Amino acid sequence: MSAEGDAIEATIAARATPPGRIPPIRLLGDIACPWTYLALHALRQAFGAQLQLDWHPFLLNLGDLARQRRRLAGPVAHYAAAMGVPFTAASLAQAVDTRLVHAVVLAAGADQRAGDAAAALFHARFAAGDALVTADDVGRALDARVDAADAARWCARAPAHLPQVERAARTARLAGVSEIPLAVVDNAFVIGGLQPPEAYHALVELADIRDQLVA
User: Fold this and answer.
1) How far is residue 201 from each of residues 2, 54, 61, 114, 176, measured CA to CA in Å?
2) Does residue 4 fall inside a structural domain?
């Protein structure tokens, strides 16, 4: 992991003020989506190392994303600066197929490391401006922020997860999901868009209240 990566992890840990019980959080998003990049940062700021992230692939329409990039640059840069998250507007210049990247995150999820893999790949995409077009691009992005052995294992396992990427994305659209990011807390409470850490804390508290009521 790079020195920059260590500094960002330390900042996230310092900001995290999680409540007592942290249920699993499923994040529907796309590595091509800058709002999902910021939402993952907000989740990590909310829960730190206690975040239990389940990744649900969603495939944006690349044509729509390319047409929106100029409109996105200003608002994304504004919120990224407010959150203390690195962002380069040039990262929006190229819309790329993210199926392989999703598959790598799902492979990491088998090791309970989806959050780490997603954070590394999002950083490469939107902070460093890497397109992540090839398997080598993805491997280098992971190597910069996670253990090399973990990165190699996830990349090797990724092709087996490609059918799961397609199925997850298709199922989300059939269920009516049309916009991302979308976070599902404890398989019960849903919140969309970019939210502050406190909003995620509130949903966790709702889950805790529900458990007390049904106990």
Assistant:
1) 30, 17, 31, 20, 26
2) no
For 168, the token pair is 């997850």
The reply to whether 13 falls in a domain is no
Amino acid at 29: G
* Structural domain contains residue 40: yes
Q: Which two tokens stand for residue 41?
A: 């940062």
The C-alpha atoms of residue 196 and residue 21 are separated, in whole angstroms, by 19
Encoded amino acid at 120, one letter: A
> Cα 96 to the chain's mean position, in Å?
16
Tell me the H-state helices in 57-179: 62-83, 99-109, 114-122, 135-143, 148-157, 162-174
Question: 203: domain range?
Answer: 21-214
Q: Report pLDDT digits (tens) over 103-157.
A: 999 999 999 999 999 999 999 999 999 989 899 999 999 999 999 999 999 999 9
Residue 8 lies in a domain: no
What is the pairing mode between strands 182-185 and 25-29?
antiparallel
Q: Which helix (H) or strand (E) holds 46?
A: helix 34-47
Return left, alpha or beta for 65; rule: phi > 0 is left, psi -120 to 50 is alpha, else beta.
alpha
Number of domains in the chain: 1
Under 8 Å between Cβ of 52 and 23: yes
Q: Which CATH number goes with the domain that contains 105?
A: 3.40.30.10
